Amino acid sequence: MEKKKVIVVGAGVAGLSSAIRLQKDGYAVEIYEKESLPGGKMHVIEKDGFKFDLGPTIVMMPDLYREIFEYAGKDPDDYIPMKRLDPMYRSYFHKGTESIDISSDLVKLMKTLEEISPEDAVGFLKYLSSIYERYSVARDNFLQRPFRNKRDFYNPSMIRKALQLKTFDSATDSISKFVKDEKIRQMLTFQTLYIGVSPNNGPSLYTIIPMIELLYGIWYIEGGMHKMAEGMERAFIELGGTIHYDAPVDEIRIENSRATGVLVNGKAENADYVVCNADFPYAMKNLVKDVSAKGKYTDEKIDKMKYSCSCFILYLGMDRKYDDLEHVHTFVFSESLDQNMEQVFSGEFIEDPSIYIVAASKIDPTVAPEGKEGLYVLMPVSDLETADYDWNDPETVAYYRTKALKAVSDLPGMSNIENEIISESMITPLDFQERFNAYNGACFGLQPTLLQSNHFRPQAKAEACENLYFTGSSTHPGAGVPIVLLSGKIAADELMLDDNK
Question: Which of 217, 404, 479, 496 falls between 20 and 30 A from 271, CA-CA?
Answer without folding.
Answer: 479
